Amino acid sequence: MSTLALEKSKILENYWPPITSKIAVCMSGGVDSSVSAYIISKKGYETVGLTGWLIKGAGRCCDNGMVDALKVCEQIGVNHVSKDLRVFFKQEIVDPFINSYQMGSTPIPCITCNNTIKWGSLMQYGFNELGCTHIATGHYAKLVKENNIYKIVRPKDLKKDQTFMLWGLTQEALSRTVFPLGDLTKGEVREIAAGVCHGKPLHVADKEESQDICFVSDKEGTQGFLGKYLESKEGYIIENKTGKVLGIHQGTHNYTIGQRKGMGIAYAEPLYVVDLNIENNIVYAGTKEELEGFELIAKDVNWVVPFETRLIASVRAKIRYNSKTSPAKISILDNNQVKVTFSEPQSAITPGQACVFYDETDTVLLGGGWIR
Predict the structure, then answer these.
(1) Mean of the per-residue pLDDT values for the chain?
(2) Considering 26, 132, 214, 355, which one is annotated as catalytic?
(3) Most exposed residue of 12, 264, 285, 362, measured as fewest CB within 10 angstroms of its CB?
(4) Is residue 214 flagged as an active site residue?
(5) Of these residues, 73, 113, 132, 355, which one is catalytic?
(6) CATH class, 231-286 region
Protein backbone atom coordinates (compact mmCIF):
# COMPACT_ATOMS: atom_id res chain seq x y z
CA MET A 1 0.00 0.00 0.00
CA SER A 2 1.38 3.43 -0.92
CA THR A 3 2.42 6.09 1.60
CA LEU A 4 -0.26 8.37 0.16
CA ALA A 5 -2.89 5.71 0.78
CA LEU A 6 -1.72 5.17 4.36
CA GLU A 7 -1.82 8.90 5.09
CA LYS A 8 -5.26 9.22 3.53
CA SER A 9 -6.69 6.28 5.48
CA LYS A 10 -5.75 7.96 8.76
CA ILE A 11 -8.09 10.87 8.13
CA LEU A 12 -11.03 8.83 6.86
CA GLU A 13 -13.43 8.34 9.74
CA ASN A 14 -15.41 5.13 9.98
CA TYR A 15 -19.14 5.76 9.48
CA TRP A 16 -21.55 5.28 12.36
CA PRO A 17 -25.31 5.85 12.01
CA PRO A 18 -27.42 7.93 14.43
CA ILE A 19 -27.50 6.48 17.96
CA THR A 20 -31.26 5.95 17.59
CA SER A 21 -30.61 3.25 15.00
CA LYS A 22 -31.43 -0.40 15.66
CA ILE A 23 -28.68 -2.66 14.36
CA ALA A 24 -28.82 -6.35 13.48
CA VAL A 25 -25.37 -7.89 13.77
CA CYS A 26 -24.76 -10.86 11.46
CA MET A 27 -23.16 -13.34 13.85
CA SER A 28 -21.39 -16.54 12.87
CA GLY A 29 -20.30 -17.38 16.39
CA GLY A 30 -16.75 -16.26 15.69
CA VAL A 31 -14.63 -13.70 17.52
CA ASP A 32 -14.97 -10.89 14.96
CA SER A 33 -18.76 -10.81 14.74
CA SER A 34 -19.05 -11.32 18.51
CA VAL A 35 -16.81 -8.34 19.25
CA SER A 36 -18.77 -6.33 16.67
CA ALA A 37 -21.98 -7.04 18.59
CA TYR A 38 -20.29 -6.09 21.85
CA ILE A 39 -18.96 -2.79 20.47
CA ILE A 40 -22.32 -1.80 18.99
CA SER A 41 -24.21 -2.57 22.20
CA LYS A 42 -21.63 -0.68 24.30
CA LYS A 43 -22.02 2.38 22.08
CA GLY A 44 -25.67 2.46 23.08
CA TYR A 45 -27.36 1.15 19.95
CA GLU A 46 -30.33 -1.17 20.24
CA THR A 47 -28.67 -4.40 19.14
CA VAL A 48 -29.90 -7.76 17.89
CA GLY A 49 -27.68 -10.74 17.11
CA LEU A 50 -28.83 -12.41 13.88
CA THR A 51 -27.55 -15.80 12.71
CA GLY A 52 -28.53 -17.62 9.55
CA TRP A 53 -29.08 -21.36 9.83
CA LEU A 54 -27.46 -22.32 6.56
CA ILE A 55 -26.57 -25.98 6.49
CA LYS A 56 -28.57 -29.15 7.06
CA GLY A 57 -26.82 -31.23 9.66
CA ALA A 58 -23.38 -30.40 11.03
CA GLY A 59 -21.44 -27.47 9.71
CA ARG A 60 -18.89 -25.09 11.16
CA CYS A 61 -21.26 -22.13 10.94
CA CYS A 62 -24.36 -23.87 12.05
CA ASP A 63 -23.77 -26.34 14.84
CA ASN A 64 -21.59 -24.78 17.55
CA GLY A 65 -21.52 -21.45 15.68
CA MET A 66 -25.19 -20.71 16.28
CA VAL A 67 -24.90 -21.81 19.91
CA ASP A 68 -21.81 -19.66 20.43
CA ALA A 69 -23.57 -16.61 18.95
CA LEU A 70 -26.50 -17.15 21.32
CA LYS A 71 -24.18 -17.46 24.33
CA VAL A 72 -22.33 -14.25 23.41
CA CYS A 73 -25.62 -12.38 23.06
CA GLU A 74 -26.75 -13.64 26.48
CA GLN A 75 -23.40 -12.58 27.91
CA ILE A 76 -23.56 -9.02 26.57
CA GLY A 77 -27.29 -8.65 27.22
CA VAL A 78 -28.80 -8.46 23.73
CA ASN A 79 -31.42 -10.54 21.97
CA HIS A 80 -30.41 -13.27 19.53
CA VAL A 81 -32.48 -14.49 16.59
CA SER A 82 -31.79 -17.28 14.11
CA LYS A 83 -33.28 -17.48 10.63
CA ASP A 84 -33.69 -20.81 8.84
CA LEU A 85 -32.12 -20.32 5.39
CA ARG A 86 -31.04 -23.91 4.74
CA VAL A 87 -33.08 -24.48 1.58
CA PHE A 88 -32.27 -21.03 0.20
CA PHE A 89 -28.55 -21.43 0.99
CA LYS A 90 -28.42 -24.75 -0.86
CA GLN A 91 -30.17 -23.28 -3.90
CA GLU A 92 -28.20 -20.04 -4.06
CA ILE A 93 -24.75 -21.00 -2.76
CA VAL A 94 -24.08 -24.73 -2.59
CA ASP A 95 -25.66 -25.85 -5.88
CA PRO A 96 -24.01 -23.08 -7.95
CA PHE A 97 -20.69 -23.95 -6.27
CA ILE A 98 -20.98 -27.54 -7.51
CA ASN A 99 -22.17 -26.48 -10.96
CA SER A 100 -19.28 -24.04 -11.36
CA TYR A 101 -16.69 -26.78 -10.92
CA GLN A 102 -18.63 -28.98 -13.30
CA MET A 103 -18.44 -26.20 -15.93
CA GLY A 104 -14.72 -25.57 -15.39
CA SER A 105 -14.97 -22.44 -13.23
CA THR A 106 -13.56 -21.92 -9.75
CA PRO A 107 -16.13 -20.06 -7.62
CA ILE A 108 -15.77 -17.87 -4.53
CA PRO A 109 -18.91 -18.74 -2.57
CA CYS A 110 -18.13 -16.33 0.27
CA ILE A 111 -18.58 -13.32 -2.03
CA THR A 112 -21.87 -14.69 -3.33
CA CYS A 113 -22.92 -15.38 0.25
CA ASN A 114 -22.20 -11.78 1.22
CA ASN A 115 -24.41 -10.48 -1.59
CA THR A 116 -27.19 -13.04 -1.31
CA ILE A 117 -27.30 -14.03 2.35
CA LYS A 118 -25.84 -11.31 4.59
CA TRP A 119 -26.83 -8.29 2.49
CA GLY A 120 -29.78 -10.21 1.08
CA SER A 121 -31.99 -12.49 3.10
CA LEU A 122 -30.58 -11.60 6.54
CA MET A 123 -30.68 -7.87 5.86
CA GLN A 124 -34.28 -8.02 4.67
CA TYR A 125 -35.30 -10.19 7.61
CA GLY A 126 -33.63 -7.77 10.01
CA PHE A 127 -35.40 -4.81 8.46
CA ASN A 128 -38.82 -6.29 7.74
CA GLU A 129 -39.29 -8.66 10.67
CA LEU A 130 -37.09 -7.28 13.44
CA GLY A 131 -37.57 -3.56 12.78
CA CYS A 132 -33.85 -2.88 12.39
CA THR A 133 -32.51 0.10 10.45
CA HIS A 134 -28.98 -1.21 9.82
CA ILE A 135 -26.95 -4.41 9.72
CA ALA A 136 -23.38 -4.91 10.89
CA THR A 137 -20.78 -7.57 10.17
CA GLY A 138 -17.36 -8.50 11.49
CA HIS A 139 -15.56 -7.69 8.24
CA TYR A 140 -12.28 -5.80 8.47
CA ALA A 141 -13.28 -2.85 6.31
CA LYS A 142 -14.02 0.80 6.84
CA LEU A 143 -17.09 2.67 5.63
CA VAL A 144 -16.74 6.35 4.84
CA LYS A 145 -19.46 8.80 3.87
CA GLU A 146 -18.33 11.67 1.63
CA ASN A 147 -20.71 14.01 -0.19
CA ASN A 148 -23.58 11.55 0.39
CA ILE A 149 -21.57 8.75 -1.25
CA TYR A 150 -20.70 5.69 0.81
CA LYS A 151 -17.22 4.33 0.18
CA ILE A 152 -15.60 1.11 1.34
CA VAL A 153 -11.97 1.82 2.20
CA ARG A 154 -9.18 -0.28 3.56
CA PRO A 155 -9.25 -0.87 7.35
CA LYS A 156 -6.65 -0.11 9.97
CA ASP A 157 -5.47 -3.73 9.94
CA LEU A 158 -4.18 -4.17 6.39
CA LYS A 159 -3.21 -7.78 7.06
CA LYS A 160 -6.87 -8.62 7.72
CA ASP A 161 -8.27 -6.38 4.96
CA GLN A 162 -11.50 -7.97 3.66
CA THR A 163 -12.60 -5.26 1.25
CA PHE A 164 -11.93 -7.67 -1.65
CA MET A 165 -14.98 -9.69 -0.55
CA LEU A 166 -17.35 -6.70 -0.57
CA TRP A 167 -17.30 -5.50 -4.18
CA GLY A 168 -20.88 -6.66 -4.79
CA LEU A 169 -22.46 -4.19 -2.37
CA THR A 170 -24.61 -1.28 -3.53
CA GLN A 171 -25.02 2.28 -2.28
CA GLU A 172 -28.45 1.34 -0.90
CA ALA A 173 -26.97 -1.53 1.10
CA LEU A 174 -24.03 0.54 2.34
CA SER A 175 -26.32 3.33 3.53
CA ARG A 176 -27.66 0.83 6.06
CA THR A 177 -24.41 -0.94 6.95
CA VAL A 178 -21.94 -0.70 9.83
CA PHE A 179 -18.39 -2.08 9.95
CA PRO A 180 -17.44 -1.88 13.68
CA LEU A 181 -13.94 -3.32 13.18
CA GLY A 182 -12.72 -0.79 10.62
CA ASP A 183 -10.54 1.06 13.12
CA LEU A 184 -9.25 -2.00 14.97
CA THR A 185 -6.50 -4.54 14.42
CA LYS A 186 -7.07 -8.24 14.92
CA GLY A 187 -4.91 -8.05 18.01
CA GLU A 188 -7.10 -5.32 19.46
CA VAL A 189 -10.21 -7.35 18.69
CA ARG A 190 -8.70 -10.31 20.53
CA GLU A 191 -7.88 -8.03 23.48
CA ILE A 192 -11.48 -6.84 23.67
CA ALA A 193 -12.70 -10.43 23.51
CA ALA A 194 -10.27 -11.43 26.26
CA GLY A 195 -11.79 -8.92 28.66
CA VAL A 196 -9.56 -5.87 28.49
CA CYS A 197 -12.58 -3.61 28.07
CA HIS A 198 -15.25 -5.32 30.16
CA GLY A 199 -13.54 -7.34 32.86
CA LYS A 200 -14.10 -10.88 31.65
CA PRO A 201 -13.65 -12.74 28.38
CA LEU A 202 -16.35 -13.26 25.80
CA HIS A 203 -17.49 -16.84 25.44
CA VAL A 204 -15.61 -17.14 22.11
CA ALA A 205 -12.45 -15.27 23.15
CA ASP A 206 -10.15 -18.22 22.43
CA LYS A 207 -12.03 -19.58 19.43
CA GLU A 208 -9.87 -20.28 16.39
CA GLU A 209 -10.61 -18.68 13.04
CA SER A 210 -12.12 -20.63 10.17
CA GLN A 211 -10.46 -19.80 6.86
CA ASP A 212 -12.20 -22.31 4.63
CA ILE A 213 -15.58 -22.68 2.95
CA CYS A 214 -18.14 -23.23 5.70
CA PHE A 215 -20.02 -26.09 4.04
CA VAL A 216 -16.86 -28.03 3.13
CA SER A 217 -15.35 -29.89 6.08
CA ASP A 218 -11.62 -29.87 6.73
CA LYS A 219 -11.63 -33.66 6.62
CA GLU A 220 -13.12 -34.07 3.13
CA GLY A 221 -11.75 -30.94 1.41
CA THR A 222 -13.14 -29.50 -1.81
CA GLN A 223 -12.42 -32.59 -3.92
CA GLY A 224 -14.04 -34.87 -1.37
CA PHE A 225 -17.09 -32.63 -1.20
CA LEU A 226 -17.46 -32.44 -4.98
CA GLY A 227 -16.97 -36.20 -5.23
CA LYS A 228 -20.29 -36.69 -3.46
CA TYR A 229 -22.12 -34.90 -6.28
CA LEU A 230 -20.00 -35.20 -9.44
CA GLU A 231 -19.11 -38.50 -11.05
CA SER A 232 -15.54 -39.46 -11.85
CA LYS A 233 -14.79 -39.35 -15.56
CA GLU A 234 -11.42 -40.51 -16.77
CA GLY A 235 -9.62 -38.24 -19.20
CA TYR A 236 -6.18 -37.15 -20.39
CA ILE A 237 -3.70 -34.73 -18.88
CA ILE A 238 -1.96 -33.19 -21.90
CA GLU A 239 1.17 -31.05 -22.13
CA ASN A 240 -0.02 -27.66 -23.26
CA LYS A 241 2.81 -26.83 -25.69
CA THR A 242 3.38 -30.22 -27.32
CA GLY A 243 0.03 -32.01 -27.08
CA LYS A 244 1.80 -35.00 -25.50
CA VAL A 245 -0.28 -37.16 -23.14
CA LEU A 246 1.31 -36.96 -19.68
CA GLY A 247 -1.19 -38.84 -17.57
CA ILE A 248 -4.77 -39.66 -16.69
CA HIS A 249 -7.20 -37.72 -14.50
CA GLN A 250 -10.51 -38.71 -12.90
CA GLY A 251 -12.52 -35.59 -13.68
CA THR A 252 -11.84 -31.97 -14.62
CA HIS A 253 -13.78 -30.84 -11.53
CA ASN A 254 -10.77 -31.95 -9.47
CA TYR A 255 -8.61 -29.23 -11.05
CA THR A 256 -8.44 -25.48 -11.20
CA ILE A 257 -6.26 -23.07 -13.19
CA GLY A 258 -2.92 -22.58 -11.44
CA GLN A 259 -3.11 -25.81 -9.47
CA ARG A 260 0.23 -27.55 -8.96
CA LYS A 261 -0.39 -30.35 -6.47
CA GLY A 262 -2.34 -33.49 -7.19
CA MET A 263 -1.35 -34.02 -10.80
CA GLY A 264 0.78 -37.10 -10.12
CA ILE A 265 3.13 -36.48 -13.04
CA ALA A 266 6.92 -36.79 -12.99
CA TYR A 267 8.43 -33.97 -15.04
CA ALA A 268 11.70 -32.07 -15.35
CA GLU A 269 10.15 -28.92 -13.84
CA PRO A 270 7.01 -28.11 -11.84
CA LEU A 271 3.81 -28.39 -13.84
CA TYR A 272 0.62 -26.42 -13.33
CA VAL A 273 -2.90 -26.66 -14.66
CA VAL A 274 -2.96 -23.99 -17.38
CA ASP A 275 -6.31 -24.76 -19.03
CA LEU A 276 -9.37 -27.02 -18.84
CA ASN A 277 -11.33 -28.36 -21.81
CA ILE A 278 -14.62 -29.44 -20.27
CA GLU A 279 -16.25 -30.57 -23.49
CA ASN A 280 -13.42 -32.99 -24.31
CA ASN A 281 -12.57 -33.77 -20.66
CA ILE A 282 -8.94 -32.64 -20.96
CA VAL A 283 -6.64 -31.07 -18.36
CA TYR A 284 -3.78 -29.09 -19.92
CA ALA A 285 -0.51 -28.88 -17.98
CA GLY A 286 2.29 -26.39 -18.47
CA THR A 287 5.01 -24.35 -16.82
CA LYS A 288 4.53 -21.39 -14.54
CA GLU A 289 5.35 -19.00 -17.40
CA GLU A 290 2.42 -20.40 -19.40
CA LEU A 291 0.05 -19.25 -16.65
CA GLU A 292 0.86 -15.58 -17.10
CA GLY A 293 -1.45 -13.18 -18.90
CA PHE A 294 -2.17 -9.46 -19.13
CA GLU A 295 -5.88 -9.31 -20.00
CA LEU A 296 -9.25 -10.60 -18.87
CA ILE A 297 -12.94 -9.97 -19.34
CA ALA A 298 -15.05 -9.49 -16.21
CA LYS A 299 -18.82 -9.90 -16.28
CA ASP A 300 -21.67 -8.89 -13.93
CA VAL A 301 -19.65 -5.87 -12.90
CA ASN A 302 -20.80 -3.88 -9.87
CA TRP A 303 -19.54 -0.38 -9.10
CA VAL A 304 -19.61 0.19 -5.36
CA VAL A 305 -19.23 3.91 -5.89
CA PRO A 306 -20.71 5.72 -8.91
CA PHE A 307 -18.27 5.25 -11.75
CA GLU A 308 -17.70 7.87 -14.41
CA THR A 309 -18.56 6.12 -17.67
CA ARG A 310 -15.72 6.50 -20.13
CA LEU A 311 -13.95 4.27 -22.57
CA ILE A 312 -10.80 3.73 -20.54
CA ALA A 313 -10.06 4.31 -16.85
CA SER A 314 -6.95 3.79 -14.74
CA VAL A 315 -7.36 1.70 -11.58
CA ARG A 316 -5.49 -0.73 -9.40
CA ALA A 317 -6.84 -4.26 -9.63
CA LYS A 318 -6.23 -7.77 -8.40
CA ILE A 319 -7.55 -11.24 -9.14
CA ARG A 320 -6.83 -12.91 -5.83
CA TYR A 321 -7.76 -12.08 -2.23
CA ASN A 322 -4.23 -12.40 -0.85
CA SER A 323 -2.39 -10.76 -3.75
CA LYS A 324 -1.31 -7.15 -4.17
CA THR A 325 -3.05 -4.84 -6.61
CA SER A 326 -1.43 -3.89 -9.91
CA PRO A 327 -1.98 -0.88 -12.19
CA ALA A 328 -4.58 -1.65 -14.84
CA LYS A 329 -6.74 -0.04 -17.50
CA ILE A 330 -10.46 -0.73 -17.68
CA SER A 331 -12.37 -0.58 -20.95
CA ILE A 332 -16.16 -0.52 -20.66
CA LEU A 333 -17.90 -3.18 -22.76
CA ASP A 334 -21.54 -4.01 -23.44
CA ASN A 335 -23.72 -6.21 -21.21
CA ASN A 336 -22.21 -4.99 -17.96
CA GLN A 337 -18.76 -6.28 -18.80
CA VAL A 338 -15.30 -4.72 -18.76
CA LYS A 339 -11.96 -5.55 -20.31
CA VAL A 340 -9.11 -5.30 -17.82
CA THR A 341 -5.55 -4.83 -19.10
CA PHE A 342 -2.80 -5.09 -16.49
CA SER A 343 0.54 -3.34 -16.78
CA GLU A 344 2.22 -6.37 -15.21
CA PRO A 345 1.61 -10.07 -16.03
CA GLN A 346 -0.87 -11.85 -13.77
CA SER A 347 -0.51 -15.52 -12.91
CA ALA A 348 -3.39 -17.97 -13.26
CA ILE A 349 -6.28 -15.77 -14.40
CA THR A 350 -9.10 -18.13 -13.51
CA PRO A 351 -12.71 -18.18 -14.75
CA GLY A 352 -15.17 -17.94 -11.86
CA GLN A 353 -12.82 -15.92 -9.66
CA ALA A 354 -13.21 -12.20 -9.03
CA CYS A 355 -11.34 -9.21 -10.43
CA VAL A 356 -11.61 -6.34 -7.96
CA PHE A 357 -10.87 -2.67 -8.62
CA TYR A 358 -9.46 0.03 -6.32
CA ASP A 359 -8.75 3.68 -6.95
CA GLU A 360 -5.26 4.81 -7.95
CA THR A 361 -4.32 5.49 -4.30
CA ASP A 362 -5.11 1.83 -3.55
CA THR A 363 -7.44 2.94 -0.76
CA VAL A 364 -11.03 3.02 -2.00
CA LEU A 365 -12.84 -0.07 -3.30
CA LEU A 366 -14.39 0.87 -6.64
CA GLY A 367 -16.10 -2.38 -7.58
CA GLY A 368 -15.47 -5.70 -9.23
CA GLY A 369 -16.75 -8.46 -11.47
CA TRP A 370 -16.52 -12.17 -12.18
CA ILE A 371 -13.73 -13.33 -14.46
CA ARG A 372 -15.33 -14.76 -17.58
Answers:
(1) 91
(2) 214
(3) 264
(4) yes
(5) 113
(6) mainly beta
